[in-house]
Amino acid sequence: MCSTEREEEHDDESFWVLKPIHPSGVRGTAGCETWSVAFSPDGSHFAWSMGYGMVKVFDWPLPTDEGECISRCSSKTLKCEHLIWSLAFGPRLSNGAREMGQVSSRADKERLLLATGLDNGSIKVWIVSTGKLLYELRGHESIVRDLAFAPNGSLTLVSASRDKTLRVWDLNKKGKEPHVLVGPTHWIFKCSISPNSSMIASVCNSDSRVYLWSLRSFTFIRYLTYNQPRTMISCDFSADGALLAVGSYDCSSWVVDLWDPYTAEHVASLRDCDMCGYRFENLIRALSFSQEGLRLALVTDQRALQIWDLERDQLFQQYTQRGIDALCCTFHPKGGTIAAGTRDGHVKFWKIPRSVPSLRHLCRFALRFSLSTQQVEVLPLPKKILDFLTYRDVLRHKVLRCNKGCSSP
């Protein structure tokens, strides 16, 4: 069903590429796109929505022998019969949940599931070990644009759809009707669940605000509101849940805003140069927080893939391989690798240099996973420490790099 190509390892080139066996044909042909890629929570599997209604699930890591055909490695093909827009493995645990001693049941560990969101509004849930269909969830009236399992070891699945609703499914209770979250007036593009499984964040394509919902009471909490019109693309929580990254673009450039989800305070923004480029010339396509350290990956039109190190306040890595045209990206849960799916159905992998998070960051991570911003602010600590714990010491505005190639200020 696919072929591979191993490339030389240069700073700006992928070290491994998965190519679909069916050519994409004319650029932009509908149906061939890789809209979603995903690593399993323990990093042992990789799922690829390879276009034309098929998902390929591989054992990870992929073969390192250049002459070994990918079809000979352990893999399964899931035939979904409809175009696939979203993927999610479950059950899963966040790093903070593991440190708090939370564990998933033995049955859940042995039954790794993969949920696939389809263009007909249904969600098919597969048993990864056998490749057998377990459930087909119906209720959405349009494309299931995004999926996320709660990172607490349960089988709570959140789905976001172009029918302008979010649905919360409990896969442990077969036949139970989902909780339906309504309110958005535009297509929902992306949803993300906080690491402590308390909040859901979602963004709509033409709604210049972020919606925050309670995953415990299934009620609306608050908006994160912008002063100027934005086209919203993606959102993701940091590994400690203290930051929410939101990707959008306005009339001049793409922007990534960092918010405090507990207080609705705007913490910082990363953006392209305001003086260079015009709308639709360099759009942001996706973003993803790493589970290791404090790194944020951005997929944009012109510079392919960028990784921002928020702890060190620097552009950590930039991959500018020509023709990537990426639509999605995700980090391996244990670090060291990032994958991006492209419009022509390919998946490209890059090696990420490893680094050891500072002791300061590890302490902040442990504290912020358990405490909200309001709980931190009442602690009898010096202001500098409180600013660090609440990320208020982050540079408020940062221009990553302008379209003409000048360095960040």
From TrEMBL:
Gene3D superfamilies in alphabetical order: SOCS box (1.10.750.20), YVTN repeat-like/Quinoprotein amine dehydrogenase (2.130.10.10)
Q: Which PROSITE patterns does this entry report, sorted A to Z?
A: WD_REPEATS_1
The SOCS box domain, residue ranges: 350-393, 356-392
Q: Which UniProt keywords apply?
A: Repeat, Ubl conjugation pathway, WD repeat
InterPro entries linked:
SOCS_box, SOCS_box-like_dom_sf, WD40/YVTN_repeat-like_dom_sf, WD40_PAC1, WD40_repeat_CS, WD40_repeat_dom_sf, WD40_rpt, WSB_SOCS-box_domain
Q: Report any Pfam family annotated for this entry.
A: WD40
Q: In which pathway does it act?
A: Protein modification; protein ubiquitination
One GO term (biological process) = intracellular signal transduction
Name recorded for this polypeptide: WD repeat and SOCS box-containing protein 2
Source organism of the structure: Chanos chanos (Milkfish)
* Organism phylogeny: Eukaryota, Metazoa, Chordata, Craniata, Vertebrata
The gene it comes from is wsb2
